[in-house]
């Protein structure tokens, strides 16, 4: 059966609803944010409609460049860790019997019901000196005395990976479940070890899925602003933390908006670059 | 003002929500019974609940003016909402509780109706720092509630209470402090100036501010946590995870009364006293009712009641109050307070914010 090209306006109607949603929930708010980012800040508390570049000029400094760089690095690291953990995990999960898979997936879905606040405070307790896991290590004789594992970069990374991992697995799962098992059987027949088959056959076959998952986790991690505050030192605060400061505590909407626009543009550019590189390599 | 959200969520949120709902349901019947009415904005959560319970019903009984209480969001969002509504001739609340910084910011657009102080019987008993004036002397706001930020310690970790803010700089306290994360809510520049530079007037010049920032930078290695959400620090202080820091006197007192090993100390340089004003939106037509309310709230008996029931610090001189010495000590101190330089956070807001952020993040 051949699919007919749409001819009349009526044929396009299925597109109207998604288009409307996109306009209401993305185009309008984002345009408002762009507009506000050019408004003039009045230090006494308000802002006036204008077209000035002050807000962007203030952002273009070594200091904010450093914060932006750190935020991007952290998001990339979270994405890489998540995929590195989730990919083999999901692969092994799809090899298990159906009811075992269901159990695992229900468990993962229930983790999604935890808010960022609960995750943050739970990890801060686990990493604390007074009630944390190091007390357990002391009890079994691994350590001399309990120590605090936070605030550290490792704590921030752990919290963020924990938060993003269920999403990662749920995104990878459908693709891995549909993977043709004969590919692997062929590799094994030709003498590849299971590990070699996994890296040389399974991983390349799912390249696009992996790239898409990396991008999704990257974007997800970029917006995190609570976990870096709860688990990290000020050096580990992301740009999102500073945006919140400006918007809520300094009532400097124009500057907050300018930072947010910058963050969106940079991440869009990075995502675009990743896709472009991926396509070129595919063409070869 | 983040503290009030935190407070309501952490300690009394669950009970409070139920009581506040009950209070709101009871409100329409009061409204119907009265001709005169007034909409009063108070911080949502603990404050609103306390006011609905202890203050508004008696005010209505005494004056015949019905009160509709409005839960204000904290931060500066309420100021922005009031300003935008006033431009359209609307007043979401006639009177509002407003932080000092927001009161000053509202002055710039004449958002506050100047108050006629001759209508307040106890105007002369108010401490001068609780009268917020326009630059030309008209009164923009009258102190509504005040509270302290003091030096707090875990009693297990510190057997002896510290006596001075200098403890924050003590090398022995490396990685042990919890401090508020923003210049405009921690008031640490003022603390630095009062402790090491002879007073907060030292912050008048940019040179003085730079020196204060330099001195404050020495604290950084001692700080374990720069907190925005009070629940974060309160928990760590109680458990001894972060045994010292700056925190709210009233909440620390309540925690100590509940048996937690914490104490609040007024350092010899003074505690930090922060406060909120009653301000009247220029779009409001309820000028007489608003004056009656402020007059009622400024009575010594009401200020005493608020101290006992809500835990706030009186805005009146100590002599006129009916508080017993121990009741006064629970909510205040005779040591001269450190009064925040609110003017700096409007006139030099962005400059200070930038330097501050670079100081602690950099």
Automatic annotation (TrEMBL), chain A:
**Which PROSITE patterns does the entry mention?**
ABC_TM1
| Topology of this chain in the membrane | Multi-pass membrane protein
Tell me the compartments it is located in. Answer: Cell membrane
Q: Does the keyword Cell membrane apply?
A: yes
Principal subcellular localisation of the protein:
membrane
A GO biological process of this protein is:
transmembrane transport
Q: Where is the ABC transmembrane type-1 domain?
A: 68-276
Q: Does the keyword Membrane apply?
A: yes
> Which InterPro entries does the record match to this protein?
MetI-like, MetI-like_sf
Superkingdom to which the source organism belongs: Bacteria
Keywords for the protein's UniProt record, in alphabetical order: Cell membrane, Membrane, Transmembrane, Transmembrane helix, Transport
Residue stretches spanning the membrane: 12-39, 59-91, 103-127, 147-176, 197-227, 255-278
| GO CC annotation terms, alphabetical | plasma membrane
Family, per entry: Belongs to the binding-protein-dependent transport system permease family. CysTW subfamily.
Specify the protein name.
Answer: ABC transporter permease protein
Q: Please name the source species.
A: Mesorhizobium amorphae CCNWGS0123
Automatic annotation (TrEMBL), chain B:
Kindly provide the name given to this protein in its UniProt entry. Answer: Putative substrate-binding component of ABC transporter
Source organism (scientific name): Mesorhizobium amorphae CCNWGS0123
Q: Which GO terms describe its biological process?
A: thiamine transport
Spell out the GO cellular component terms annotated for this protein, sorted alphabetically and separated by semicolons: outer membrane-bounded periplasmic space
Signal peptide positions on this chain? none
Keywords, alphabetical: Periplasm, Signal
Supply the PANTHER family for this chain.
ABC TRANSPORTER SUBSTRATE-BINDING PROTEIN (PTHR30006:SF2), THIAMINE-BINDING PERIPLASMIC PROTEIN-RELATED (PTHR30006)
Q: Which InterPro entries match?
A: SBP, TAT_signal
GO MF, one annotated term = thiamine binding
């Amino acid at each position: 059966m051949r699919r007919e090209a749409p001819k009349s306006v009526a044929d396009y109607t299925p597109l109207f609803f998604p288009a409307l949603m996109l306009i209401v929930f993305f185009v309008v708010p984002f345009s408002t944010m762009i507009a506000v980012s050019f408004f003039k800040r009045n230090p006494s508390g308000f802002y006036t409609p204008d077209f000035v570049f002050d807000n962007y000029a203030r952002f273009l400094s070594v200091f904010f460049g450093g914060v932006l760089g750190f935020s991007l690095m952290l998001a990339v690291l979270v994405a890489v860790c998540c995929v590195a953990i989730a990919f083999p995990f999901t692969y092994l999960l799809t090899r298990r019997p159906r009811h075992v898979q269901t159990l695992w997936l229900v468990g993962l879905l229930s983790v999604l019901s935890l808010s960022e606040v609960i995750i943050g405070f739970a990890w801060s307790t686990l990493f604390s000196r007074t009630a944390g896991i190091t007390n357990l290590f002391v009890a079994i004789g691994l350590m001399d005395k309990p120590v605090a594992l936070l605030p550290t970069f490792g704590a921030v990374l752990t919290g963020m990976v924990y938060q993003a991992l269920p999403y990662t697995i749920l995104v990878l799962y459908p693709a891995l479940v549909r993977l043709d098992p004969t590919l692997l059987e062929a590799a094994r027949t030709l003498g590849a070890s299971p590990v070699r088959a996994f890296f040389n056959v399974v991983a390349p076959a799912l390249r696009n899925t992996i790239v898409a998952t990396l991008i999704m986790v990257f974007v997800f991690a970029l917006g995190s602003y609570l976990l870096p505050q709860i688990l990290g030192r000020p050096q580990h605060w992301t740009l999102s933390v500073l945006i919140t400061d400006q918007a809520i505590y300094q009532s400097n909407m124009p500057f907050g908006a300018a930072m947010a626009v910058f963050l969106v543009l940079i991440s869009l550019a990075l995502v675009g670059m990743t896709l472009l590189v991926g396509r070129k390599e595919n063409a070869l | 003002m983040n503290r009030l959200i935190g407070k309501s969520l952490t300690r009394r949120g669950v009970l409070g929500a139920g009581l506040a709902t009950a209070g709101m349901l009871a409100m329409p019947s009061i409204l119907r019974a009265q001709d005169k009415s007034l909409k009063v904005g108070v911080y949502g959560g603990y404050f609103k609940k306390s006011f609905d319970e202890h203050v508004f019903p008696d005010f209505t009984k005494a004056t015949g003016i019905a009160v509709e209480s409005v839960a204000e969001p904290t931060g500066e969002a309420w100021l922005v909402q009031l300003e935008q509504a006033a431009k359209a001739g609307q007043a979401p609340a006639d009177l509002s509780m407003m932080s000092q910084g927001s009161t000053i910011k509202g002055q710039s657009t004449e958002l506050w109706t100047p108050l006629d102080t001759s209508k307040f019987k106890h105007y002369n008993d108010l401490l001068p720092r609780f009268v917020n004036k326009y630059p030309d002397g008209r009164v923009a706001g009258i102190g509504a509630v005040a509270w302290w930020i003091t030096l707090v310690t875990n009693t297990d970790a510190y057997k002896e209470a510290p006596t001075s803010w200098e403890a924050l700089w003590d090398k022995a306290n490396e990685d042990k402090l919890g401090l508020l994360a923003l210049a405009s809510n921690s008031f640490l520049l003022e603390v630095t100036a009062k402790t090491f530079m002879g007073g907060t007037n030292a912050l008048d010049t940019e040179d003085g501010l730079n020196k204060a920032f330099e001195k404050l930078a020495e604290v950084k290695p001692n700080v374990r946590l720069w907190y925005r959400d009070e629940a974060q620090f309160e928990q760590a202080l109680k458990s001894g995870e972060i045994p010292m820091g700056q925190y709210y006197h009233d909440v620390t007192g309540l925690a100590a009364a509940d048996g937690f090993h914490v104490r609040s100390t007024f350092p010899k340089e003074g505690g930090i006293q922060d406060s909120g004003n009653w301000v009247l939106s220029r779009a409001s037509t309820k000028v007489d009712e608003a004056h009656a309310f402020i007059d009622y709230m400024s009575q010594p008996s009401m200020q005493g009641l608020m101290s006992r029931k809500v835990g706030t610090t009186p805005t009146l001189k100590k002599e006129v109050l009916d508080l017993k010495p121990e009741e006064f000590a629970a909510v205040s101190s005779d040591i001269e307070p450190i009064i925040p330089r609110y003017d700096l956070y409007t006139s030099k807001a962005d400059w200070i914010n930038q330097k501050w952020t670079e100081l602690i993040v950099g």
